Amino acid sequence: MQSPTKIKIPKIISFGRLIGPGGCNLKPIEEETGTHIYVITDAKPPHIEVKINEKITLLSCKDRIKEASDKLKELMKTIDLEMKNRQKNTVKKKVNNNNHKENHYEKSKRWKENNLKRERIASERK
Q: Model-level pTM?
């Protein structure tokens, strides 16, 4: 029996996003590779353990663990990119919101100036 392989989980990746709803991110990898995948969150650093599923005899143990490890690393890269893109979009939204506030301020300032002009003209006519 081969010892489990450990893969460190980067800090940017949340455990829930890694596992997916109902394990939808990890279960397909387990089924395709004939392994068991455990997310160890209480260890420092948090990591994933990949062990051989003894009930399945597909490929050699090394091949199954390597394939599962490769797929997990690819999954983490994808999640990492999604998180970085989400952070960029959040920063862009904040910038756009600030611009919107400035535009709103300028519009209200213009509106007040126009009202003052109208009042002055109206008072001059009287």
A: 0.63
